[in-house]
Design a protein that fits this description.
The protein is mainly α. It has 5 helices and no strands. The N and C termini lie far apart (about 35 Å).
């Protein structure tokens, strides 16, 4: 996995992706994937991420994912 990450980082550097954009995209993708793996359950996702549920809620808001997962959860019912 480390090698794959190094290759990806190399590609991002070649394409001129800024550090902040790279970190933000990683964080967004990682959190989104953990939420999906936990069927949108924020408590379970927060536990899997090793953060408090309230922190996850703030991160979702910050990353613009808050409404996305509420809508998916409602649609699944």
């Amino acid at each position: 996995m480390k090698r794959e990450l190094e290759v990806l980082v190399g590609q991002m550097i070649e394409k001129g992706v800024f550090y902040g954009d790279a970190v933000g995209e990683f964080e967004k993708t990682f959190i989104k994937s953990v939420l999906e793996k936990n069927s949108g359950n924020r408590s379970q996702a927060a536990k899997a991420l090793g953060i408090h549920r309230n922190t996850l809620g703030r991160k979702l808001e910050e990353l613009g994912l808050n409404n996305h997962h509420k809508a998916r959860k409602t649609a699944a019912r």
